[in-house]
Amino acid sequence: TAASQPSTNWHLKENAREHHTSKFSSKELVVRRGQAFVITFNGAEQPDQTLTFIAETGPKPSKQHKTQVTFGISSTASKDSWSAVLQSASSNSVSISISSPPNAIIGRYKLSIQSSSSGTSSSAKLGTFVLLFNPWSSGDDVYLSNKAECEEYVLEEFGIIFAGNKNHISSFGWNFGQFQGDILDVCLDMMDRSLSYRQDPITDVSRRHDPRHVGRVLSAMVNANDDQGVVLGNWSGNYDGGKNPSSWTGSVEILHSWKKSGFRPVRYGQCWVFAAVLTTGKCLGIPTRTITNFSSAHDADRNLRVDEFYDASGNHLERGADSIWNFHVWNESWFSRSDLGPSHSGWQILDATPQEESEGIYQCGPASRKAIKEGEVELDYDCPFVFAEVNADCMYWNYDTSTGKKTLIFSESNEIGKSISTKAVGRDDRVDVTSDYKYEEGSKKEREVFKKARKTLGLEDKFDPTAAPFAEVEQKPDISGKFKVAGPLEVGKDLHLNLILENLESDAKTVHVNMTAWSTVYTRRPVHGIWKDSLSVTLSPKEEKLFPLKIPYTEYQQRLTTDNSIQVTALCHVEGGVQVLVQRDIILENPTIEIQILGEAKVNKEVDVEVIFTNPIDSEVTGCVLQVQGNDLLIGILEIDVPSLKAGEKSSTKFKLTPLEKGPKHLLLNFSCDKFANIKTFKMVNVID
How many helices (H) and strands (E) in the chain? Predict the structure, then answer.
């Protein structure tokens, strides 16, 4: 017989404190596996009564798939199975400590109880709870022994993402917001909407004890490809019909839009958006961080090299699927690799940006970072692609559009995988992790690892740079060239560069130079031609000459993408010699915005904030909007219209905050107007009682 529904006290506060889940705002119990939690329910304990608990998860719970477990009361907690220990019993209530094993399936469970005494039995539902991975428990696959790292990679909601290019690293703040509202539910929805679940829900749920499975499924679900996942990518430079990827400052808004629209992909994202949303998945308990790789290779054909093509005028052609991105952002998650052995445990690379298919869908990883460093590209999952992102060789070709003839201009083996960066633990600083991905560039060990990877991929007998038809063996150039910046790199100012050409030979050389400048997205995909010029010069033996160049603001203003990036190219045709390609990727700085907190920030007390922006250009800026967000400082996103500003005019915008909780909190700002897009900044606000 079914008994009446007993009332259950889940001891939310006490259990959450023990389980590092106090930041969740739900009314439901959220606990971590491999650790005990206490519940109390009403009902007298009879002397001859036996109690049996049933915990179930997934659509068709079964003992066989470990999605249904039954356990009685025992005298001590079990280490490797579900167990219950009686804490106390009175005439009308029973307190029980329930423990799950460190490899339990994560997700939402239904808990019920059966009691039988003297031949009659009754069952009752106690309610539901959510079980997560447990980085604080030494038996868990995601165990992270350093407590400060658990704080940063599991509990911290604020992050810093690095961008720009290898010559100029910039950064912006991001609100991961993994504890906000129903974000935990949305992340569980992601798992339940995956192809893996739709194709075989029973097997999918039974594999959710394994961070490898959960990480791989989330890497597929964060992008919209294949499965109506969370974010739709767009790298065209035209973002009509959605939001410019650069305008987002947090994951919460994105995940909420996805859920509210009935799970229609949110428009639009680029790599850091996919990576940041995947980082928010750390609410499930897998320690996760974002990683930025500068000069990142997208090697589409698994030959560990990327080919770039230029026409005779020096225009960068979109040919072939390979590309070199100014930067690319992916994730690392921390867990052990029982499939590869202990030396490959630790940080695992996951990449949710849809670049290449893996097992037929757009997902990538987990690839062991150790395997990447050692060139073990045969190991699961997707190591060849990740290895190429940080190690590929670059080949630059001249492509004759009328004949289809390709001529190699030059190749470069240490161009790719620079200044690999992540946020420091407990500080708002950049940490360089390049040496965790590869041995020192140019060292004997680094080339050995590259050779080993080529051999594993069956590339060793393919003559390296010049196997393609029509190719010529690389010849030594007679001249060298470089672009040097000669003035401020700021949006709104003319761009001044010097082209420096040097004759390396002891006889005179005549050079014809074709120059172009294109605005690009950060993937270095050309969007708009901005400027072109040409010059001819005869260089005396060993002579070096400098040519000043100017690209006026009026020329690039309308054509700049919101990435503020311009690629300048000079293709030098040397009479009687080989061509020389000179190029430079330039990122222009937006003006800055300043934030001041006027007074002390105290819990539940209003405090004024002032934001100051000065228009640096000599024309009016209109359509100015300021967006503000910050967990525990304000609810949701505050949007403020700022009046138009005349040339050189300064604006001050004030608003009020009422902090909800003490401690260091981050305020994130994004300012846009018709001439400057998405000027971002953040400020740490220390809230006191």
Answer: 13, 37
